[in-house]
Amino acid sequence: MADREHHGAVGDALTFEAPEDGGARHWLTRFNPAAKLVAALILGLGLVPAVDAVTGGVVLLGVLALVPFSGLDRRTLLVLGGPFLLMGLSSGLVNHLYGVEGWEGALGAAVRLLAIALPGLLVAAGSDPTDLADGLVQRLRVPERPAMGVLAALRLIPLLADQWRTITLARRARGLEAGRNPVRMVTLFFGRMFALLVRAIRTGTLMATAMDARAFGTGPRSRSRHSRWRTADTLLPICALLLLVSAYALSARLGTLVLLFS
Q1: Mean pLDDT of successive 10-residue stretches along the chain, which has 262 residues
Q2: Are 203 and 159 in contact (CB under 8 A)?
Q3: In the chain, how many domains are there?
Q4: Does residue 130 share a domain with residue 233?
Q5: Is 149 left (phi over 0), alpha (psi -120 to 50) or beta?
Q6: Do both 3 and 76 map to the same domain?
Q7: Which range marks the domain in which residue 3 is found?
Q8: Does one domain contain both 187 and 59?
Q9: Cα 56 to the chain's mean position, in Å?
């Protein structure tokens, strides 16, 4: 089994593995990843009906307060959170341009998207992939095949990051650079994305073949590790539910609560 390392950067490569003991400060890494996933699902699904900025904002602030204790360093958080931030800003802009609620609706859409995405990001990047797969199978009774698919996907994130860097350097070596031309920059970006997609499909196909050869998902398997579930793991989803209820209560008290399809 590979040694676990703290989240961070080694050279140009990102590592996404949680420290084994979590450290005194990074206490969030001590929770069972399955418990963190349940808490993230409670927050994500619970925010679907609310489209106002206050409800999503309360949840977002609550989750942001946990970031310093998640074990994620700033670089990893910026790299992984950047696309979600861009999605939130884009969603807000689209709602402002084509929606009927103006800036209020745009802000609500952006905050809601970020509040839904951030808990999942902390679970995926703040948990050891093997522990997460063990928790899914042993504690949440998820079938082995999709659980192993989650494990494989999380293990592929650093590999895809390295492949993206290799593609960029290879194209630069061939003289394919955008310079200061924004149109060419966008064109080259989508070209690199297509090349990465092709590599990801090839890697996924090889991994699926290897997993089938090892008979994953075909029957009961022995366990080399036991997924522990403690009292704190039960309290974490309860705290997430309380945060969600508090967000709705505060929004309703302020008169800002807006429900979907209302």
Answers
A1: 42 46 72 95 94 93 92 78 83 79 83 92 88 90 83 81 85 78 80 87 85 73 84 95 96 90 70
A2: yes
A3: 2
A4: yes
A5: alpha
A6: yes
A7: 1-17+28-139+227-262
A8: no
A9: 17
Query: Residue 35 in contact with residue 236, Cβ under 8 Å?
Result: yes
Closest among 119, 115, 96, 121 to 40, alpha carbons compared: 119
Domain membership of residue 57 (yes or no) is yes
pLDDT given at position 106: 85
Q: Which of 178, 156, 161 is nearest to 80 (CA)?
A: 161
- Among the listed residues 6, 20, 11, the one whose alpha carbon sits nearest the alpha carbon of residue 225: 20
134 — phi, psi (to 5°)?
-60, -40
Examine residue 180 and state whether it is found in any structural domain, yes or no: yes
Whether the Cβ atoms of residue 212 and residue 188 lie closer than 8 Å to each other: no
114 within a domain of the structure (yes/no): yes
d(CA 50, CA 260) in angstroms, rounded, equals 6
For residues 32 and 150, membership in a common domain is answered with: no
pLDDT of residue 200: 86
Residues found in the chain:
262
Does residue 23 lie in a domain region?
A: no
Please indicate, yes or no, whether residues 71 and 174 belong to a single structural domain of this protein. Answer: no
In sequence order, the 6+-apart residues with CB closer than 8 A to the CB of 50 are 56, 112, 247, 248, 251, 257, 258, 259, 260
